[in-house]
Amino acid sequence: MSLEYPRFAVVGHPNKGKSSIVSTLAHDESVQISNIPGTTTKQRAFPLKIDDKILYELYDTPGFQRARATLAWLKSQDVSAHNRPDRIKRFIYEHRDDPRFHDEVELLEPIMAGAGIIYVVDGSKPYGVEYEAEMEILRWTGQPSMALINLIDDSNYVDEWRMALGQYFRLVRLFNPMEANFTQHIALLESMAQLKEEWTSGVKESIEIFGRYQEQKIDDSAHLIAKLTIDALSHISSIPISTEEATEEEQSRVVESYKSQIRSTERKLHRKIAKIWNHSSIDSSIDIALFQEMDLFSKESESLFGLSKRDMLIASVTSGALTGSSVDLMLGGSTFMLGAAIGGLAGGAGMMWGYSEISDMKILGQKLGHKRVEVGPMQNRNFPYILLRRTIYYTQEVANRPHADRTDIEIESADILKSISLADGEKGELEKIYKLLRKGNTPKVKMVENYTTLIRGILSRYIESL
Ligand SMILES: Nc1nc2c(ncn2[C@@H]2O[C@H](COP(=O)(O)OP(=O)(O)O)[C@@H](O)[C@H]2O)c(=O)[nH]1
Ligand SMILES: [Mg+2]
Asked: Rounded to the nearest whole angstrom, what is the distance from the C-alpha of residue 25 to the centroid of ligand 2?
């Protein structure tokens, strides 16, 4: 039978990570994964789809339940090797309504309909003869097959597994669905391409498309980040006021409304990025772990994601905001001078690192009773970097996360976050657009393009592609 795209049935013992492998390889977060054996009760196909083209399809299946009894049935008549696939078909036909062999029928059906076999074992548990009936049944199907060794725990019995699996399967590979990155996914596809000659060109083409898709997702993320960070940084909030000058209550109300609008722009950006990477449903857990506990405007966020004073200075100098003698003075000067000079740029030392001062308040309107108080755009010089690096951190977490991984994202350590580094040249380039936004100007198309390219370049250091 010739299929327009390759199909693979992921089979094995219960609880060895079959569903996890399907989830990761199909980029599908809807695959049910559970530590309760028997969670997967029916075969179900999960396609990896790109722009409506199916690259391949993976069948998630229940695990073997009665492999020995099945094999005994198969062998209960004399069968020569060339008749074994027919014997399997006979088994399916005769046991379709037999609850005792429900799981075997479910897992053998897609194979006999033409799917290749991916046999999954846990290499952190010792090899045992109880697997031999399963492997023997799979051999009887006559379908091309490979074995994947998943290391679920820390112990390692990979050598003995390789020895046994090698006798039954053409290819044996290590693959961990919880840790697999883009490169490992591609490597596995390369192996799948070798399984059957008529699949080779199809799977190779899929690898190409898959690689371009990865690039596309990085591009799309960069465009979104550029657009929404510009929106946030140029945002202005205002509220009506009842007096000539805004009262303290009114002032804090407008600042709070401004902050909450910026926060919601950030959340919107994160949601859209999660969607690009097919991670919509875990988005909320990442949000909670990462950003609800660490407010965008908090000191903690500033210290993890903001630039140091030194880096801020470099950004200003490289962007051309500072020149000549003032630079010499600052670089050669005392720490006090340095701080004072930077503080001066932000409109006053002491204000710079605090978020109570985000921008000047403007009172708008002529007549009493129709006045408004307004804040924005963002004047804090470090804020654009905090917002950008939070977003880049979020994007790389989502992009590099295998779909089988359903755990919450946790901030591991400050070191990890600090590793989202910017080259000095990048800081200068970024500062050009941030300076413009601070002044309330709208950047030209060319500048937005340049900004997008910069972000794309940063992302490509943290997200693998071909
Ligand atoms: N730590 C770790 N856990 C895994 C790995 N693969 C599977 N699991 C866990 O093992 C359990 C069974 O996984 P599942 O994919 O549902 O196995 P299936 O029954 O073979 O489909 C789940 O709790 C998974 O989260 C792995 O590589 N590492
Ligand atoms: Mg399962």
From this structure: 14
Amino acid at 294: M
Which residue's CA is the nearest one to ligand 1's atom 23?
A: 35
Q: Which residues contact 319 (CB under 8 A, 6 or more apart)?
A: 427, 428, 429, 430, 431, 432, 435
Judge contact between 237 and 254, C-beta under 8 A: yes
pLDDT band at 273; cut points 50, 70, 90: very high
Listed in order, strand segments (DSSP E) in 51-131 are: 53-60, 116-122
Tokens of 322: 């500072």
Q: Phi, psi (5° rounding) for residue 336?
A: -60, -45
Structural domains present in the chain: 7-195 (3.40.50.300), 212-462 (no CATH)
What token pair was written down for 316? 């200003």
CA of 60 to the centre of ligand 2 (A): 7
For residues 215 and 465, the answer to whether their CB atoms sit within 8 Å is yes
Exposure of 326 by Cβ count < 10 A (0-12 exposed, 13-18 middle, 19+ buried)?
A: middle
Distance of CA 168 to the CA centre of its chain: 35
| Contact between 225 and 389 (Cβ < 8 Å) | no
Alpha carbons 352 and 344: distance in angstroms, whole number: 9
The Cα 322–Cα 241 span in angstroms is 38
Return the amino acid letter for 443: P
Q: pLDDT tens for residues 305-351? A: 888 888 888 777 777 665 544 444 444 433 333 333 333 333 333 23
Given the structure tokens 């290819």, which residue do they identify? Answer: 171
Q: Which ligand is nearest to the CA of 64?
A: 1
Residues with CB under 6 A from ligand 1: 14-20, 33-35, 39-40, 63, 150, 152, 176-178
116 CA → ligand 2 middle, Å: 18
